[in-house]
């Protein structure tokens, strides 16, 4: 019985892609909180917060982990993504809302330690209730499409929004 269980667990690990994860992630990496290098947000997200890519490359095929450090009051307007996301609140508290209007009607309060999964194409928004750190795990290429073009930070003084540069939608 123990041998059958061990074979089953090994098989589940192989089927779930543990070998593919090792290839995607590359070499072993470990980060202490004080060693994370924070930088500006990607241009497709509102300014006012910081980001750190822990592994992978959100602009390319494959897995990645992105941390966002946002101050109280930061918000990401209603939007969608081309791929599913797994969201973990590391510290602080955020509000995750569903739907095309950030009106706090369909919301969930997520304190530190919370987890949420977001299927691709679901319209949602984020409101930061207190200084927070959130981790996004997903597969790339990662993108964001805002429900209202006026909310897209890439369009502030930029050229024609119909350009492929502004959309992460799969063609």
What does this structure look like?
This protein is mainly beta. It has 2 helices and 9 strands; from the N terminus they run H-H-E-E-E-E-E-E-E-E-E. The chain has helices at about 1-15, 20-25, and strands at about 40, 50-55, 60-70, 75-80, 85-100, 105-110, 115-120, 125-140, 145. A hairpin with an 8-residue loop joins strand 5 and strand 6. The chain is globular. The model is unreliable at about 1-25 and about 160-170 (pLDDT under 50).
Summarize the structure.
The protein has 171 residues and is mainly β.
Annotation keywords:
171 residues, 9 strands, globular, disordered C terminus, mainly beta, 13% helix
Q: Give the rounded overall mean pLDDT.
A: 80
**Cα-atom radius of gyration:** 18 Å
SS-based structural class? mainly beta
Distance between the termini: 50 Å
The portion of residues forming beta strands comes to 35-45%
Percent in helix: 10-25%
Approximate shape: globular
Low-confidence stretches: 1-24, 158-171
Please describe the topology of this protein.
Blueprint (H helix, E strand, L loop, with lengths): L1 H14 L2 H8 L13 E2 L9 E6 L6 E9 L4 E6 L4 E14 L8 E5 L3 E4 L5 E17 L4 E2 L25
Antiparallel strand pairs: 1-2, 2-3, 3-8, 4-8, 4-9, 5-6, 5-7, 5-8
